[in-house]
Amino acid sequence: MINSILDLGNKVEVLKKTGLQIVEHSLYSKVQDIVSEDEIIISTPIENGKIVPLEKMGEYYLSVYTDKGLYRCEALVSNRYKEGNMYYASLKLLTKLQKFQRRQYYRLDCVLKFKLKYLEEDQKEETKEGTKEEVWHDAVFLDISGGGLRFNTDIQLISGETIICHLTLNYEGNEKNLFVKSKVIVCNAVDFKTNSFEARAFFDDISNEDREVVIRYIFDEERKRRKKEKGM
Q: Which residues make Cβ contacts (< 8 Å) with residue 109, sequence separation at least 6?
């Protein structure tokens, strides 16, 4: 089956799977051989003219760009070797290749406060009355689309973890409160001294109705901006 999806020469985006709060950036490679249903060989990534070896026995997220679309999986570097002047990495696929539906949504630049919490939020703060309450963290999104959002927060998030975003969106005179399960793509430090981080997340499990609310909010904001530019 894997041979019906992948072709030699397919571009591969490689991202280190790490428990660190600040994740590494993506590296790029190509498929060099398809060994079996759960093993492929890629060329060692090169960045700025320098070879960047993958960590042996390290786990990575893979995004493979094929003629049939974008596929994603997790893989482990089982071996590294050199042939002639070329360096290679043998990858054991830990998960099945899953097709990722990339929808091109218009992205709106804006600044709006919202709340977020971890999906598995077991820790709860105790109030003065002795009751337990869920821990929500303040955040500000910088842009939003029907597929996800970019935001600032004062907590360190881990790439791949799931969060719940509580968004309050006003459009066409209506106020909608959405609780959207989202997956963190990346989180980078803006300023360690002030605990300021910038993160990106995509909506991992959003209903068509809630996605429509986000899109209508974006369109409504765009209409307001166009009217303001025209002096209406």
A: 142, 143
Handedness of CA 46, 52, 55, 61 (dihedral sign): negative
Angle among Cα 46, 99, 213 to the nearest 5 degrees reads 110
pLDDT, tens only, 69-101: 888 888 999 999 999 999 999 999 998 898 866
**pLDDT tier for residue 20 given thresholds of 50, 70 and 90:** very low
Decide if 118 contacts 134 (C-beta within 8 A): no
The answer to whether residues 24 and 38 touch, using CB atoms and an 8 Å cutoff, is no
47: which residues sit within 8 A by CB, 6+ positions away?
27, 28
How far is residue 6's CA from residue 34's CA, in Å, rounded to a whole number? 8
d(CA 177, CA 167): 6
pLDDT at 196 over 70: yes
Euclidean distance between CA atoms 176 and 167, whole angstroms: 8
Token representation of residue 73: 């999986």
